[in-house]
Fold this sequence. Notes:
Helices cover 38% and strands 30% of the residues. With 235 residues, it is α+β, with helices and mostly antiparallel strands. Helix 5 packs across helix 7 (178-187).
Amino acid sequence: MAEAQQQQQKQPVKKAKGKVVDKWKAKSWYSVIAPEFFNSKEIGQIVSSDEENLVGRKVLANLGELTGSFNMSNAYTTVKFLVKEVKGKHCYTEFIGHELAPAYVRTLARRRRSVIMVVKDNVTKDGKKYRIKMTVVTGVKVSAKAKTAIRKAIEEELSSSVPKTDFIAMAQDVLFGKLSQKVYLRIKKIAPIRKIEAHKSEIVVSVKEKKLAAAGAQAAAAAPVEAKAEEKASS
């Protein structure tokens, strides 16, 4: 009898299982919409349990898929967007930059050619600080003097074009080759040119602006909570 009681005491006590919550059921799918200059095309979907968490999220898309034109440059270009607003189940975005695949950029640099890269920040007509990185590949090896002249010509074109143009129009010029064509017209007499690419661009945001944006997002997220607390206090 005593042995039976000891065995019963040694048996583990089974804990009551709580209800398992399926986190995916609490989440919703949202369509991501490109800016108007991409015809407000749907570029994908993202999932979230709270639409407030979607604002500020970065979304990437392939330029070839956005335009339907799959030339070599477009196929290797990633376009970067930022979710700025959520309405219903749609996330509306703004363009913040682009980048050519590094592997594609490396294929441009071959033997018996010179590669010149230029990075330049300028402020657009509507006040956006826009950084553009350009790569020029010459048809033959060129001298240091020619490289300097090409860099100067590119910087002059960027300093001339960007301040006269709104950001969206400038982004289109960068993505669709108009800027590269302008640069070509400036440098074609300096050396034979094989390829010109605006291989990367981005909006430049200062540390101060980032902190202000983060503070604004925190204030917006806290506002509904504070409002509910006031309602409870008044009741």
